[in-house]
Amino acid sequence: MPPRFYFSLRSPYSWLAYRDLMEHHAELASRLEWRPFFEPDEQSAKALAEAGGGFSYVAMSREKHLYILQDVRRLTRERGLEITWPVDRDPCWEVPHLAYLAADDQGCGARFVELAHRARWEEGRDICDRTVMGELAEELGLAPGRLARAADDPRLRARGVAALLAMDRDGVFGVPFFVHRREKFWGVDRLAAFVAAVDATPRPDAAPGPQAPEPAATAGERGGDNGHAGGCG
After folding, report:
1. Which of 15, 77, 178, 224 could be 56's S-S partner, Cβ–Cβ 3.0 to 4.6 Å?
2. What sections of the protein cross the membrane (predicted)?
3. Which residue among 8, 11, 14, 44 is the active-site one?
């Protein structure tokens, strides 16, 4: 399988990892398999459970929330960025993440992620608002209704559940999360290690060389961490 980048449009850390990836490793970004990570609503959670998957979630503590505000402010200043914190009111994360799948079908997935990040973290807009999705679609030159109503499309809903199952199989418990073979890297500060691991691996078209055997998979390995920040870590 190709190296994988699990991203969430909800997480400021995922936004920062995206920016670092595109600014410093654009060629690698084009070779990654991008997979959305989002908290399922009741409908998606039910379908996920019926498919044998799971998603662990606990509410973030006040202390952790305050730490994240401080930490993200520090990280954005290091990068010369300004952040506008959005306010999430009864969010449905299928709205932007299934809209990503719809945009990706039209060859606009990477550009959609760029615009959605900009809308949320630089402009403080509500990306769970279907009107905002329609506006991003227009900016992409796509039909507004397709993205605005992506969460109502049964086929996109099914693909969203498939994305959640893939996340569960890869043992993803937070974002940004990178996977290369059996190696996993969690957090924006692990991007460099992920890049180094991928760069050290011969490309499929390269001459084969000696390789150390990969460790065996842990039996019954599943995703989920009851202490994670629900997509913000």
Report:
1. 224
2. none
3. 11
